[in-house]
From TrEMBL:
Organism field: Actinomadura physcomitrii
Bias kind Pro residues: ranges: 32-43
Protein name in UniProt: Uncharacterized protein
Compositional bias segments (type: Low complexity): 22-31, 44-58, 98-107
Region (Disordered): 22-63, 90-120
Length: 120
């Protein structure tokens, strides 16, 4: 069976073929059920068909965020409090400035550590 005619599923991102196989020792229900055991027969082994049926696989829907209007509807009746907004903006600015300063200090320390000491 070639990869082009394989009836399995494909990765939605890279479109590579995926094979669903049961994991040995796993107690969870298998995605692909094992074939039912065949009763012992008197027929030679060559007469046993090697065809395995593949159950239909439903594609999983990818999660999408809710619409923006639906999210913002909860805030529609609010009154803007400018004093609170100014305090919040100041806190965000301070936090960003602290992060920027810490990153600059970290880069300077790494730059200093990379320099090899010059011997006399």
């Amino acid at each position: 069976m070639s990869r082009d005619t394989h009836p399995g599923v494909q990765c939605p991102h890279c479109h590579s073929h995926l094979a669903l196989v049961p994991v040995p020792g796993n107690n969870a229900p298998a995605a692909v059920p094992a074939p039912p055991p065949t009763p012992p027969s008197t027929a030679p082994p060559a007469a046993v068909s090697a065809q395995v049926s593949v159950p239909p696989v439903t594609a999983k829907e990818e999660w999408q965020p809710p619409p923006v209007a639906e999210v913002l509807a909860a805030y529609a009746g609010r009154v803007k409090d400018s004093a609170t907004a100014m305090r919040g903006a100041a806190r965000v600015r301070d936090s960003l400035n602290r992060a920027r300063t810490a990153a600059a200090q970290r880069r300077a320390a790494q730059r200093t550590a990379r320099r090899t000491p010059k011997s006399a």
